[in-house]
Every structure is written in C-alpha cells, then in structure tokens.
Design a protein that fits this description.
Structural class: mainly beta
CATH superfamily of one domain: Lipopolysaccharide (LPS) transport protein A like domain
Distance between the termini: 70 Å
Oligomer: single chain
Largest sheet: 7 strands, antiparallel
C-alpha cells in the first residue's frame, strides 16, 4: 500500500492526472497545442513550389490531425499561383498529405471561381473533390467549338489517358 501511495504521489508531482474509468468520468484528452499564422510548403525535386498551405491557426489534435482555421491552399505551376483553395475550417492529415472540410469552400483560378460545401483533397493523386452545392463562375467569354471539331466522349477519354 505504501508503494502505491508513493507512485501516485510521484505521478501527481509530475502533473499527470489519474482518473477513475467510470461512466461520465472519462480520461481527459491528451495534451495538445496550437500554432498561429503558419504555412506548410511542398516543393518538387528541383526546389520549385508545388503547393503551400496557409492558416491563421492550427490545433494539434490527440489523433495526430490538425484542425486549421481560415485555411488557404495555393497550388503552383512554374512558381506561379495557378489555383487557390480556401475554407474557414479544414482538417489536415499531414503525414498522408490529405485535407478535408465540411465547411464552405472556394476555388479561384485565373479563368473561374468554384464554390461549394465540403471538400476532400489528396496530394498524392493531386485531386480535389467538392461534395455539394457546387457553383462555377467563368470569368472569360467561352468560344463554342464547331460541332465537327468536337471530340466524342470516347475520344476525349482516349486523349486524356494517352496524355498521362
């Protein structure tokens, strides 16, 4: 009994709380922290910026994920911003290079703006999916392609697959 009291005394002295595992008295969440005004860049093998994630605040969660407030992701081509993806909140899984949000999203590109609700992004596949309420606003006037010059769906798929 004396050894148990000594061990509990040492744990309390170190600031480690001990709680009983009873219903309604769950152990507290592991200690977490946060960072403010940060950015996480990724560069290619030649040192060119591929993308950069910027946030006002990120909270480190016990499950290893980050909850990011006022997230902005910039995607680059030849060291120039090609696309900006933003959302008020986002969950970032940095080791797996993935992000997700259930909040509103906005994508800005030179020739269009896309808005919606909820999104999932994976860096490995270079893919962003907007889940619902998607609206696309084109900034430039489109020119119709004459019907005789249009590709069939099969040709478009073959051209896309051939381009990879």
């Amino acid at each position: 009994m004396r050894q148990i009291c000594l061990i509990l005394g040492i744990l309390v002295g170190w600031g480690i709380g001990v709680t009983a595992e009873e219903p309604g008295n769950e152990a507290p969440e592991l200690a977490t922290g946060y960072i403010e005004h940060f950015e996480v860049p990724e560069r290619d093998s030649e040192g060119n910026l591929r993308w950069r994630l910027i946030g006002d605040r990120a909270k480190f969660r016990a499950d290893g994920l980050l909850t990011v407030l006022n997230m902005r992701a910039e995607f680059y081509q030849q060291n120039k911003v090609e696309l900006v993806f933003s959302s008020p909140t986002c969950t970032l899984d940095q080791p797996n290079r993935m992000a997700t949000t259930d909040d509103t999203v906005r994508i800005e590109a030179p020739n269009m703006v896309v808005t919606g609700i909820g999104a999932d992004w994976t860096a490995e596949r270079n893919m962003l999916i907007i889940r619902s309420n998607v609206h696309v606003t084109l900034k430039e006037k489109l020119v119709a392609i004459p019907e005789e010059q249009r590709a069939t769906p099969q040709e478009a798929v073959a051209n896309t697959l051939g381009a990879e």
